[in-house]
Amino acid sequence: MNYKRYAYINTIGCQMNVYDSEKLADILKSHGFEMTREMDKADIVVCNTCSIRHKAEEKAFSFLGKFAKEKKKRPHLITVMAGCVAQQEGEKAFARVPHLDIVLGTQAISRFGRHLDAFKSGKRQIVDIEESDVIFEAMPDIPVSSGSDFDENKISRFITIMQGCDNYCTYCVVPYVRGRERSRSHAGIVDEITLLANSGIREITLLGQNVNSYGVKEEGISFPQLLEKVSAVEGIARIRFATSHPKDLSLELIHAIRDIDKVCNHLHLPVQSGSNKILKKMNRGYTRETYLQRINALKKACPGISLSTDIIVGFPSETLEDFNDTMELLKTVEFDSIFAFAYSDRSSAPAAKFLDQVEETEKKRRLNLLLELQDVYTDKKNKALVGNSIEVLVEGKSLKQHDGFIKASDKMKQMTGRSASNKIIHFPSENSAIGDLITIRIENAYPHSLWGYPLGVEKNEK
Ligand code: 5AD
Ligand code: SF4
Fold this sequence. Notes:
The protein is α/β, with parallel strands linked by helices. The chain folds into four domains: about 5-130, Methylthiotransferase, N-terminal domain (Rossmann fold, 3-Layer(aba) Sandwich); about 150-260, Transcription Regulator spoIIAA (2-Layer Sandwich); about 265-385, Transcription Regulator spoIIAA; about 390-455, CATH 2.40.50. About 35% of the residues lie in helices and about 20% in strands. It has 15 helices and 19 strands. The protein has helices at about 15-30, 55-65, 65-75, 85-90, 95, 110-120, 175, 185-200, 225-230, 250-260, 275-280, 290-300, 320-335, 360-385, 405-410, and strands at about 5-10, 35, 45-50, 80-85, 100-105, 125-130, 155-160, 160-165, 180-185, 205, 240, 265-270, 305-315, 335-340, 390-395, 415-420, 425-430, 435-445, 450-455. Strands 2-1-3-4-5-6 form a six-stranded parallel β-sheet, with helices on both faces. A five-stranded mixed barrel has the order 15-16-17-19-18. A hairpin with a 4-residue loop joins strand 18 and strand 19. The longest helix has 24 residues, at about 360-385. The termini are far apart. The structure holds 5'-deoxyadenosine (5AD) and iron/sulfur cluster. Iron/sulfur cluster binds near residues 165, 169 and 174.
């Protein structure tokens, strides 16, 4: 009997993991699996894991642990741990999850198919945490990134352009679980983006731990040159990228953001701390002053640029004075948004051995103070946009039902999209389609979104 076999992927962590999961899905599909959203229906369950903080790691173990009972009921069920925790744990993963079948490290994605075949031939407890020079170009002969997503209407995709990291920030596991930094060829990247554009994708986000050093080791083209090449791909309307390391943010990149139309006027520039003492201990390679200089250069060259950052509070030996330096930096820069985290000890990263660890409750307290302060600026930035006309890339129907303070809009579909500055904008529209670029006049600002009307739709007071 010919019956269907289903695969379920649970992705934890960053955008790179989302991209990796798409590759895993491509391989699963080429091995006859169909993707499912229903875990109970799955014949193979993959957990693509993250080890950046303790909580993410625990999430992976608790998710996979749940399948012990299920495997007793359905012995044919295959369980796979992929990603950063897999790379970190290797064989040791079986001690915590004895029913695990395959442990697939971060550089083993291209060999996943081979391991599925080995499993089929009876091999059990397969571990692959080998290093590999191959990064995505030499994947199985299936269309690159046909995508695992169920959302057929998706118009935005991530694409990894480089892997690994050589920066060794003292709190970070990435250099240990993702290996040395290496860049993909620009031809491979442009080919993949062209395929995506031909399938209707309108926005792409180029991913790397430090995109500013793209191609440096390989002596290839620079990241700004790559942006030029990508912007020549027809059909792509918007280009985003993450992450830029402040120490390597070049004038050339600032000019690329200013001059290349398709590159969004938005930069994510993780500062991590506002204290020079802590930045030094983190091995970040810049000072508060050089960070602020770069922010000023950006604001001058790209007026209205939207800025976001990552911050860690409670790094070992962070005093109230150090923390206050971070609070002050937030006031000086006025970021549009921040991602803030309590420092989490990672045993493979050097900071785990640092003295003067900060109490968990104190970390939480500082985190809350920081987030409260940022709310003021997020609100201020959003409110400043009221009255402006902003170009929005339409992403789909709005899940939010606004109480429609405008009668004319009551009968219209509620749609949602994003501005180039990455703000979520809801609006009523009868005829806009997913993937359209449409100009919205902003009427209202909310903590996490904006609301407005397409130009030409008249406001009709209640
Ligand atoms: N603890 C807390 N946050 C961390 N990050 C990286 N490592 C840690 C850690 N050990 C944060 C940094 C980084 C973001 C992706 O995660 O802010 O920029
Ligand atoms: Fe981690 Fe620092 Fe590399 Fe970012 S730059 S991945 S924080 S080591």
